[in-house]
Amino acid sequence: MRASRVVGAITAAAMIAGTSMSEAASFSYPRMLGVQPDQISFADPVLAPMQHVRFCLNYPADCAVHGVDFRRQHIALTLERWDELNAVNRAVNHYISPQPDFSAPALTEWHILPAAGDCADYAITKRHMLLALGWPSRSLLLSEVVVPSGEHHLVLVVRMKDLDLVLDNLNENIRPLRMTLHQYQWLRIESPFNPKFWTAINVPRPVRTAMLVD
Fold first, then answer.
1. Structural domain count of the chain
2. How far apart are the first and last CA of the chain?
3. Sequence-ordered alpha helix ranges (H) in 17-49
4. How confident is the model over 125-171, as pLDDT tens digits?
5. 101 belongs to a structural domain
6. Using CA atoms, how far apart are residues 83 and 20, in angstroms rounded to an integer?
7. Which of 56, 104, 195, 213 is the most exposed place for a label (fewest CB within 10 A)?
8. Contact at 8 Å (CB) between 29 and 214?
9. Its pTM surpasses 0.85
């Protein structure tokens, strides 16, 4: 899907949700006070989910490395980037109708921008759109978590300078990683160096941190 079609899909989805693009991007900007870096760290390599291997066969461009620039290893969270993340996150959450997939993992396929889909379809669609809008692949990492019910769930982690943000179809708002630690057990994540490879996750230990979302 070309960037123009992606932006068009975002706009259409925002209209379906009953908002303009500017309104869809009007979530509050997070402020972190006295924070230690709020990021996961990457542990040992692990096998990628079987569904992701199949996804890479069907969508090879989404599993390629995009936007390599060794002079800019970390992307700052500017207001413009925050608005763009929110526009994509909210539009995709409204555009795709939730539809659980009860197929066996060996039979499950992930699809970009379906009319109806499960958590993986939301996550890969958001990542696909952000890649088309120029975001580097090292900052857009699919991650597998476990929800309190014990179900495995896929989210998109957007890795910024000193901050990981979580884009999730189960929550309308983008949240800093630390706000999800009580809710999710984090299992594995795409490598920032190559989207085809995955690693285990080390999450930050709880620290006394002041966190505000304006």
1. 1
2. 35
3. 21-24
4. 999 999 999 999 999 999 999 999 999 999 999 999 888 999 999 99
5. yes
6. 12
7. 104
8. yes
9. no
